[in-house]
Amino acid sequence: MPTRQTLTRAEREASGWIVRIKAHDATERDRQDFQAWLDSDPDHPPAYAKLERAWGAVQSLQHLKGRAAANDTGPTPSRRRWLPAAAIAACALLAIGAGVWFTRAPTPFAPSEHYTTAPAEVRTITLADGSTITLSGAGEAAIAISNTERSVDLARGYALFDIAHDPERPFVVRTPEGDITVLGTSFVVRISEGEVRTTVLRGSVSGAVDRGFFSARRNSVTAGANQEIVLRDGAAELVEIAAEAIPRRLAWRDNMLAFDGETLNEAIAEVSRQTGWTFELADPALGEMRIGGYVAADPEAFIALVSSNLNLKAHREGDRRIVLSRSS
Length: 328
Description:
With 328 residues, the chain is α+β, with helices and mostly antiparallel strands. It has helices at residues 9-22, 28-39, 44-68, 85-98, 246-249, 264-275, 299-310; strands at 113-116, 123-126, 132-145, 150-162, 171-175, 178-182, 186-192, 195-202, 205-210, 218-223, 227-232, 235-240, 256-263, 278-281, 290-296, 312-316, 321-326. Strands 1, 2, 3, 4, 5, 6, 7, 8, 9, 10, 11 and 12 form a 12-stranded mixed beta sheet that branches. Strands 14-17-16 form a 3-stranded mixed beta sheet, with helices on one face. Strands 13-15 form a two-stranded antiparallel ribbon. Strand 5 (171-175) and strand 6 (178-182) form a beta hairpin. Helix 1 packs across helix 3 (44-68), helix 1 runs antiparallel to helix 4 (85-98) and helix 3 packs across helix 4 (85-98). The longest helix has 25 residues, at 44-68. It starts with 8 loop residues before the first helix and ends with a strand.
């Protein structure tokens, strides 16, 4: 029988931090405050690690439930979201308080290792199984390897995955819009506002969305080379792409910006993620203009591009903030 435990102050505080840090809209200030909290007391890191193991267990159960329903051919859900962070944290607290996961030994769930990158930073992570993950675009990933599954919680940014083949341990990438599952392949995941786009470079990838932990319906598609899976609005869509588009999908690895007919709004979101600068439009209508070009991921290079291609001018307003307007 599990032993009921009393939650410590550090564990209660950790539950608040896990909700704050794992939120899709967590800021750099949030992460700095979190690091300060970890450093302020030697009891804080183990308390957070304990909560995170329970968090991972709840999310893994959510994923296993979804996988069991993957072959259901019922109606496509209207909207998919993760089980809310606060609800997962509550489940984790209940599990710890009841001693469910932590007074037994051992469990298949492994603690996560956290990785982040600055906007212009490109970082390659080598996993114990030989797989590699290249992270950028102010990326944030939590990686966990167990004896039954390999998983990454990718909260934001871009990531190139080169995954070692292991039919006994599927590799799952969990994102704010859905899950990506593979056995061994190479693919790129790009997270933007309300959308997750997965480009397959080699092998095949499955993308799926559902309505959360209590949903019985799941919408999934499988993509091969020169195909993309787009997860948004509770649906998984399969998209064909031209082979020449692949290098553009990988431009960020070389700290480059590649545009081919994107709207200025989309281009601004991209350059902001890669540089950490804020770009605004004096006239919202400018956001629908289309842009093309291949330039360094640098604010000055982007300003030169929009100046020559779109006849716009840049006005600096404060630190790392640019307003674009029509040239008179």
